[in-house]
Specification:
elongated; 2 helices; mainly beta; five-stranded antiparallel beta sheet; binds zinc ion
Length: 159
């Protein structure tokens, strides 16, 4: 069994009932092929989880965090993105025949669900001018069109 860089709970060691699992998975457990844009992990998933065996159930609670490097979907600048789940809760069925439980896929799913489809370098990013391509965060331009807020221009068309 390949265990390197994965999150594997040793159920035999949990006989006392409860344990804190703290560590970082290997970065390459994340496969981002299905995601749009350029986004790459800077490290693995950093986890701090309280793992508790309750009869036939394993209760897992805690925090997950992973850092990525990606390009802003509006202005294309490269920036660091932190994806965090501060309130991860999940439960798994266990029995006496299982000695190990691999939770890597579960925590990976949570991180992928929390990844923004259109990452932005900041909430107030102005993006690029659609006409001349200048970065409107850095300077203005002479284009006649009103830049305004891109999010509302689609609504203007509807009116
Ligand atoms: Zn931006
Ligand atoms: Zn312009």
């Amino acid at each position: 069994m390949e265990t390197q860089g994965r999150l594997i709970v040793d159920l035999d060691r949990l006989e006392e009932g409860e344990e804190i699992y703290e560590g970082e998975t290997s970065p390459d457990i994340i496969d981002l092929d299905e995601k749009v844009g350029s986004i790459a992990p800077k490290g693995g998933i950093v986890y701090k989880l309280n793992v508790q065996a309750l009869g036939t159930e394993l209760l897992v609670r805690g925090t997950l965090l992973q850092r990525f490097i990606c390009n802003c979907s509006l202005c294309d600048v490269c920036f660091d993105l932190e994806v965090k789940e501060g309130d991860f809760v999940d439960s798994f069925e266990i029995n006496e025949e299982i000695s190990f439980l691999d939770l890597t896929n579960e925590i990976r799913e949570v991180i992928i669900l929390n990844l923004p489809a259109y990452p932005r370098c900041s909430e107030s990013c102005k993006g690029l001018c659609p006409q001349c391509g200048v970065d409107l965060n850095k300077s203005g331009c002479e284009c006649k069109t009103e830049h305004g807020d891109n999010r509302w221009s689609a609504l203007d068309v509807l009116e």
